[in-house]
Amino acid sequence: MVVGNTVLFGSPLVIAILFAILDAPKAIIASLLFGYLLLPETLYFDLPLLPTLNKHTIPAMVCLLFVLLSGAKNNAKVLPGWLPKANLPRVLIFVLLFSTFLTVMTNPDPLVYGPVFLQGLRPYDGFSIILGLLVSLIPFFLARKYLAYPEQQRMLLVGFVIAGFLYSFLALFEVRMSPQLNSMIYGFFPHSFEQHIRSGGFRPLVFLAHGLWLAIFFAVTILGAFSLSRTVGGNERIKYLAVGFWLLLTLSLSNSLGALVIAVILLPVVLFFGTRTQLILCAIFAVIILLYPAIRGAGLVPVDAILTWAEGVSPDRAHSLNFRLANEDLLLSRAQERPIFGWGGFGRSMVFNEYGYELTITDGYWIIVVGQGGWVRYLAEFGLLCMPAVVAAFAFRKSQFGFETTGLMLMLVANLIDLLPNATITPLTWLLVGAIWGRIELGRVSDVEDANLIQPKTRVRPAYTRFGGPVAGNTLPDGKPARERYARQHTT
Predict the structure, then answer these.
(1) What is residue 198's three-state secondary structure?
(2) Both 471 and 420 in a single domain?
(3) Torsions phi, psi of 249, nearest 5?
(4) CA-CA-CA-CA torsion sign (480, 485, 486, 488)
(5) Are 296 and 411 in a shared domain?
(6) Per the structure, how many domains does the chain have?
(7) Which of 95-104, 124-133, 462-471 has the highest mean predicted lDDT (pLDDT)?
(8) 467 vs 2, residue with greater confidence
(9) How far is it, in rounded angstroms, from Cα 202 to Cα 253?
(10) By the 8 A CB rule, do 412 and 429 touch?
(11) In a domain, 242, yes or no
């Protein structure tokens, strides 16, 4: 624990070094990837009135501090302000924060289940939850401001892919030797070891919360690598294709079927479709994810067919999936008792028997949000996560998104699909969301750059050759280099 705490609370020094040697966009990417992938899980420091200090909040808060201190010294291309300019994300952020107060106001009553006493919510809890939400959104605000331009988005893709490639060697070590790195370096195991024994082998987790978190990280980096291969040619394209296949091999050895299925489903979209088709498919996935609770509640999800398929793959996986679905049914019934603003935190949305025994386990992030904050918070938070794909699909003609942006979109969609069975929302999720909202706000890049050009005070006429035609660059109509003495420059 001593090593873990030392590394955790010494991480601001590493981030300071990154900001000293890199420009702001690169430093933000490197700092958040470093914090998420290398800092220890489960360790935290909780102060009154302040957000919990852990591996997710410390890098984000330190990054915000450094970009605020650097101010005008930053030469990076940035979007003005900290809030999105579009009304939709602004409204969603406002509803997400304001609905927290309404959740607190509608849950003042304590709950008693035998020996279990769950306190009612107080105004203090509302401020605490809102502060926690704001801190969790810091990567969103940073990415929207500093990672909106295409070259910055390509930089973000490259950062994910490099991090995934380097991390794959640690994961493959744990595939062979069992998940030991966290215990070897930090002195503890962050989860249940039994859950990481799969099919006669091991499910790696390295320094993350669970092997499922590692698996979806590899899935998004696979999509990122193949997306980068669409932006370049020659040897560089071969390099990214090779990295993509290496990461796909790593994921296939990691004993996480769900993330592998997500990657395999989205991989043809990355490889074989153009940017507009990619955006349309991302929008379709996003709408399905956003409407999933309603579809699930209406009984339109083919549960029996899914369980039959899972049974054919692995009885253990089918049992695990059936357990999750049964829990979802119980939790949905509980959520319908207070559907608008939810039950709040402190386990109030869980199901207990009369003896105080907890009957449910929350896995999917969507059911956690619905239970705690009701449908209002769900629509606000998942709207903020899902709607950029829909908006981008409609804004394609105006904004002309490239493969670097659609690559980020597909990575986000992969993570959103995984939020249905798992609670794998991380600072990297919000980093992707913020970058995409920023790119939508930026619009057509050429228009932005033209508007920002300093107009010259003089008008320069084109140079003319002795043949009477304008010089195109430095070449004559016959393709030979133009000489200066054959050109006249007229300036008025």
Answers:
(1) strand
(2) no
(3) -65, -45
(4) positive
(5) yes
(6) 2
(7) 95-104
(8) 2
(9) 9
(10) yes
(11) yes
